[in-house]
Write a structure and sequence with these properties.
Number of helices: 20
Order of helices and strands: HHHHHHHHHHHHHHHHHHHH
CATH class: Mainly Alpha
Shape: globular
Largest sheet: none
Oligomer: single chain
CATH topology: Sodium/glucose cotransporter
Strand content: under 5%
CATH superfamily: Sodium/glucose cotransporter
Amino acid sequence: MEAFRSPIILGSVFCYMVICIVVGLWAWRRTKSTTDFFMAGRNLGIMVTGVALFSSMMSGFGFVGGPGLVYSMGLASVWIVMTTAVGFGVSDFLLGKRLRLFAGLFDSVSLPDVVAARYGSESCRFLTALAILMGVMGYLATQILAMAMVLQSIMERTGFAPEISLLTCMMISTAVLLFYCVTGGVIAGVYTDVFQGTIMVVAGVLVFFAAIAAVDGGVTQTVAIVMSDDPEAAGPWGTYGMLGCLSWCLIFALGVAGQPQLLTKGMMVKRLRDYQYIPLVSVGGYTITALLWVSIGLVMRALVLQGSHPELANADMAAPEFLMTYAHPLLAGVVFAGLFAAIMSTADAFLNIGAAAIVHDMPKAIMGRSLHNELFWARAGTVLLGVLAALFALYSHYQNQRLVALLGVFGWGTFAAALVPTVAIGLNWKRATPLAAGVAIVTSLVVNFGIEIFDLDVPYGVHGGAIALLLSMTLFFAISFVSKPPQLSREVEAIMDI
């Protein structure tokens, strides 16, 4: 079997690419309107929604970036894993049924539609769309960069194209991604989520045991090797430090309730009563697949330290290198196929909400109406956004040398700081005003992008997204308290009273 490792892995990836094309063409026939393209017809059940939610987290960010963070920073990123699981519960408690009721009552096809209905403000719609668009660039670039790096690793290690460049791999990956997204819209994404989510729950357990077996002595010896090199790496805060890890806790515990790629899927649920079961599926699936995040990063670091594996040129290569070298060929092939499915479906979600911001929300906020032939422009906007995100990914990789996960944390922090006050709190607190929502969004974007663009060094490793979130929430509450209570429509009052 080992002699056929390369053909098995290449064949698995090729088969998945073919599946993407088939799914895209199937979804094309089911996509008849803007609601289908952006909302999957609001017809999703418990399993599809639950799996789609945790799959949107454990994508290129979790399967490539997560092991890369553990390899480079030790156990620091475990705080991301733990607090994100808590965040699913927080999000469901704060929004859950209420968000679906807003979407159904006001026929919303995007999160900015819901915000506009809640605040009765087109400026809030525009600013929410702007925040989504700016956050999408960071997170979508994460997925595209992860997909290109994994494809390059497979091509090089199997000898199929040993000299292939990252740029070529990015062009191939982006082309397949855009075909898949343009033809199928969100329908293609959510049903691919079911495929990859199921694979990764099983593979997460199998890879965990394969990782343990890769080091003689198992978990105990792995931790001992890492500790002998750097005791902090195996400590509770890793090499990132206590305040840095706590800032991640804040962003990820509250931030789930501000992620539009997750909230939008919650708007697609068919029946309200399904919400009581969806978090169980999401948290359970996420927790199991997170085994891959932690185990691969630690094991690859231990293997490199003890001289069993060459030092990695890039920490983000931890997962691809482990699968290519130490996992059973069939398992590696299945995980790589599932990994591409995870990245593809998550990228589809970001392209979908980004395209909605460009062709649906911004025109509606500025002109008071949607574009004519909106479905055509949604597909055109998807292509434009995908190309821009690919260019941003290249810039981040070559100019900034950003790890995949850190690029993803930036996108996550941008969404959290802008939308947790506006959406998660605003849909629960009647006193929240349009002015407060607008100021919170603008402040979060200025702080987040200011820190990123000017490469400001925040003391003690505190993440810029945590600073932006605290500041935007403070201003949101302060302005709402000193402002005159808003006049809400009867429909909004009724939903918020539930």
